[in-house]
Amino acid sequence: MKNRYLPPLFNFSFNPDGWLEDVAKDAKREPWGKDYKVLEIYLRASFEIAKQQNKVYENRDDGFAFWKAGYLVNEMSDPIWLTYQTNRRADKQQWVFKKVHSGNCPIPERSVDDFQIKISPPEFNSSWSIHISQSNIDHIYKDTENVKRLKLVFGNLAENAHLIFRTVLGEIELNRKSETVIPQWYYGDYQFLMPLFLTQSEKVELAAALTPNPIMKRYEIHTLLLPHYSYAYARALVKSRASFANWMLLSPEELNNSYSEEQEVD
Predict the structure, then answer these.
(1) How far is Cα 154 from Cα 69, in angstroms, rounded to an integer?
(2) What is the pLDDT of residue 1?
(3) pLDDT tens digits, 5-25
(4) Domain edges within the chain
């Protein structure tokens, strides 16, 4: 029985304690954040894409399922797969995580390419306008989690909504035609992240999450995110950490910020 409040990966399978450590142990080493939270979100996003593209293998007769874990590879550059077996617990997910598999496809008659996801975000159109509705303005300046983010950047000045609004909009206008805007995958679809240099010229302090509206030919701002919070959603769309935009190439120390301090859904 599916729980509509759970991410698709967790509706698909039960994942026992230690499953993220198993994946991290097999994967090429990179910073995955405190309690492997970055890795968890990376896998959740990659699974959503794989499911949409029919790249998740399920054979209920054989009690076996698997999917290729995005672009994760081991130290030998072999692809990494997550494999599952039938979950025998009643009224729970169909599958339970079994183990990590590295190398060729888990079933010999199929190839790696058969299960490779295709990353194809829309091109960022700098000629489109940037729109923010009154409801989203209220969300950014009144929601508890957003207020916390603004205070981290602006301190006591965060209480001056007019000043913050003008500062943020000014920075967005400066960056609207910038090539530093990058895509992210967020709960089932592509968005864009625009870096905002707000109080320091050399440091991105917040990123504006932009949702494309092709009908209106504009991007709609729904929220402002701390870079470490948006990192995992953007990491799911690049083949390796080395190919990340410089402003999003956060240090291990920065990625150890706890995602648990943030609400998962904005």
Answers:
(1) 38
(2) 54
(3) 789 999 999 999 999 999 999
(4) 8-115, 129-261
